[in-house]
Structures are given as structure tokens and as C-alpha cells.
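Researcher: Let's walk through a ligand-bound prediction step by step. First, I give you the protein sequence. Second, the SMILES string for shikimate-3-phosphate. Third, you return the three-dimensional complex as C-alpha cells. Ready?
Model: Ready.
Researcher: Here are steps one and two:
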Amino acid sequence: MDLLRGVNLYLVGMMGVGKTTVGRILARELNYRFFDTDAVIAQVANESIADIFANQGEEAFRELETQVLGQLSAYTNLVVATGGGTILRLTNWSYLHHGIVVWLDVPVDQLCDRLREDTTRPLLRDGEIKSKLETLWKQRERFYAQADVRVSANITETPEVVAARAIEQIQKVLKSKIGNDIN
Ligand SMILES: Nc1ncnc2c1ncn2[C@@H]1O[C@H](COP(=O)(O)OP(=O)(O)O)[C@@H](O)[C@H]1O
Ligand SMILES: O=C(O)C1=C[C@@H](OP(=O)(O)O)[C@@H](O)[C@H](O)C1
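Model: Step three, the predicted complex:
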């Protein structure tokens, strides 16, 4: 994994794909530090993500998200689990491109089962989860597709299996990048 030294891994993808769960495992395997931008935002704001949305609105949350991402990008050897909407802002991409952007992709219908009982994600409140996720997916798919590495997963796989595949795929992409640079 020497290829990866000195860079950050940024996990992107829809809510509930496992960015936090898989990210922690990746950090452990690579001996990197792990950060979840939502957790940092909640700590800095001293409020839960749901309360920030309710009290300050989504735009204020997005501003905090950009600030936290920018601060984390000053460091190296981090695995960063981003929020599902991080990819929406062009400014955020200027930070994401400091490292390797890894898209965890789980089919939306499988995410519904995972998130049905969830109360922590404000964008899924009030209404039918499936149609909300599908609407977000339609708006966001093209942004996720700009990641350096795509890791497809399904909910029958353990986070450990997904993390192992992510490492393999990241290595493959880095090796081919280096090969292309030499040729
Ligand atoms: N591979 C997996 N297998 C089973 N459950 C998972 C897996 N990945 C994540 N989960 C569960 O799904 C939920 C959402 O995962 P999380 O890591 O918080 O997603 P994200 O950070 O992308 O929003 C959590 O309850 C987590 O325990
Ligand atoms: O998709 C989104 O816009 C959001 C995803 C959430 O993070 P997770 O992707 O970790 O659930 C959190 O940042 C916030 O609720 C908004």
C-alpha cells in the first residue's frame, strides 16, 4: 500500500451505502486516521445533523460541510467519510481532488431497507423513503460517477468484504495511473 502513502481517501456515495462503516475498516487496514464529516460538523456546531437542518437550514449545513472538508484536506493519510450531498458543490471537489475519491455504490432499492427505521437523516423525513432516495439519486448519480474509483456493493456483503474490494480496486486504479504516466 506504499502507493497510497501521503494521500487521503474520500468516500462518497448515497446515504446509507456504508461510507462510515466501511471507512472505519479501511482506516484500520491502512493505518490511517478516520474522520466522518457529519460527526465533525455535529461536534463543531454542538448540535446533531438533524437539529442543524431544523434550526439553521440545509444551506447552513452545506456551508459547514465545505468548511470541515477544507480543514480535513490540509492533512494527509486520512480516510474521510463524506456526507451524501458533498459531491453537489464544485468547491468541495477542489478539496476532494486532493486525494482519491472512492464511490461506494449500493442499489437504491437496497438502501431503502437499510434506512427505513432511520431518524438521523433529515432529507429522508416526512414521506416515502423510496421516492425520496430515487429523486436524490437522479440528481446525484452523475456527480458520484466523477469519482476516481467505483466500488459496487450489495447489502448481502459484509463491510469487511466491501473494504477489502475497495483496497484492491484503489490499488488497481493507482497502478494503471502510474503506468499511464510512465508511458
Ligand atoms: N456492508 C454492510 N452490511 C450490513 N450493514 C451495513 C453495511 N454497511 C453499512 N451498514 C449499516 O447500514 C447503516 C448505514 O451505514 P453508514 O456506514 O452509516 O452509511 P453512510 O455513512 O454511507 O451513510 C448502518 O446501520 C450500518 O451499520
Ligand atoms: O445525502 C445528503 O445530502 C446527506 C447525507 C447525510 O450523510 P450520510 O451520507 O453519511 O448519511 C448527511 O450529511 C445529511 O443528512 C445530508
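Researcher: And what stands out?
Model: Residues 159-182 form the longest helix (24 residues). The radius of gyration is 16 Å.
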